[in-house]
Amino acid sequence: MILGDIVGHRYDFKESILGILILGAFLLFFLVDFLIKKNRRDILSTLLIYSVIVYILCLIKVVFFPIYTFKDTSDIKISMFFQVIPFKSIIPSLKYHNWIQVIGNMALLFPVGVYLKILSKRVQSLKKVLVVSLLLTLSIECIQLIIDFITHYPNKVFDIDDIILNVIGCIAGWKVAENLLPHLKKDNPSILTNS
Asked: Closest Cα partner for 133 from 97, 96, 185, 174?
């Protein structure tokens, strides 16, 4: 059997397209922010907002792409689409020093915790950060599962360990920002308005 008979299509969000989207977003928001709005923010606040946009685009690229489709999916079982046993992949990853799995999943939502602490007035307690991070990572995993069902192929597996590590990463980001906030506020009072 030739490879072309097995592989259907690969859908990806190429880095060049990501770069164009980021540049376009920067230009659009720059125009809106500095040319149309009357209440202009300082440059550091503006860069912080832009970094959120860049982060969201990169997050979409990492968690949803590439998406593969195959012509023959008869050997694919539904059990390949999810992993619901807590710590099933975390413990072996730690045991065999596969740090990229653990650190990568924690780093994925680390910026969300930082952004929540700095930019959100509503999410200023550990309990609220826990709820937001849990809802966000559950949404990501559910969308990945839906993509898998649509393509009939486990592109990104719904994994309870990803949820655990993503939540830990988000909380860690929030705690780091909470500890750095007094120092940042001292040097730049206009960028941080939340505490």
From this structure: 174
The tally of CA atoms less than 13 A away on the side-chain side of residue 7 is 8
The tokens for 40 are 């202009």
Alpha helices in 31-71 (DSSP H): 43-64
pLDDT digit string (tens) for 64-94?
988 888 877 788 888 889 899 999 999 999 9
Residue 89's closest CA among 110, 67, 72, 104?
104
Between CA 23 and CA 36 the distance in angstroms is 19
CA count, 13 A, side-chain hemisphere, 62: 11
Under 8 Å CB-to-CB from 105, ≥6 apart: which residues?
161, 162, 165, 166, 169
Tell me the pTM: 0.81
148 phi and psi angles, rounded to 5 deg = -60, -45
Q: Cα separation of 168 and 107, whole Å?
A: 9
Judge contact between 5 and 62, C-beta under 8 A.
no
Give 175's contacts (C-beta < 8 A, 6+ positions apart).
Answer: 113
Per-residue CA distances from 80 to 10, 137, 186 (Å): 19, 20, 51
